[in-house]
From TrEMBL:
This is Uncharacterized protein. It comes from Botrytis hyacinthi. It comes from the Eukaryota.
Amino acid sequence: MVGDSIDDMKAGFAAGAATVLLGNSVNEELWEHEYTDLVVKRLDELVEVLKGGFVGRVER
C-alpha cells in the first residue's frame, strides 16, 4: 500500500500489506510509525526499492 496519510498506513497494515509512506513535511510524524514500513519522498524512488526486492513487513 502506498499512501500519504495515517488512514493509508492503517489500511495497508490491516490488510497485511507492506506500507510505503510518500513522505512530506505534513506527515513527518508517520515516518517512524509502527504501521509504516518504508518512507520515500518521490514515487520514482520506489521503483529502485522494488527492483532490489523490497519485502516490507516480515512479522510484527
